[in-house]
# Entry
Amino acid sequence: DTEVTQTPKHLVMGMTNKKSLKCEQHMGHRAMYWYKQKAKKPPELMFVYSYEKLSINESVPSRFSPECPNSSLLNLHLHALQPEDSALYLCASSQVQHSGANVLTFGAGSRLTVL
Amino acid sequence: DQQVKQNSPSLSVQEGRISILNCDYTNSMFDYFLWYKKYPAEGPTFLISISSIKDKNEDGRFTVFLNKSAKHLSLHIVPSQPGDSAVYFCAATQNRDDKIIFGKGTRLHILP
# Structure
């Protein structure tokens, strides 16, 4: 299995809702990531988990709460979001290759719309 | 402050010709550079990387050139094919850091 699977593909939520995005990989990669991407912008790093521990939090608002239940799963819990949080949320995992480069494998993304 | 810059939002190239995508960076501590390709409604996929100790890396139709003194790298695709039409992101990282910085991307259109 060489994929990162994200669910749901699309999510519409109100500002008072609580929802979660889920991500799964079975490649044995030690690091998992959440990125946010808005139209015509690059992916922006939100969180990194390395060996199931949160290693990077890019000053993300607390209405986004990551969780890594085990080495294959990564969740992003969403609560009290704002319309400007509408974006494509990308999950990725990574492993250092033979070349020495740390290469990301991305999922297809979850398209979030906040009303 | 953007550490990785792709100054051309889009590029059109005739099928069969060479596509050249450019990327500039500001952080001299970056030691690996990567190119990703993204189709609509899909996540980015890894294409090719280069270490800062090299000036060229080739993989099939894709070659990446690195000019450290100019802090510039480029991705060459030859010959260009219709399936190469996508958004290409340049990315950089430091000391195998998990923090990977992306450029804004260049949309490549391959014309028939």
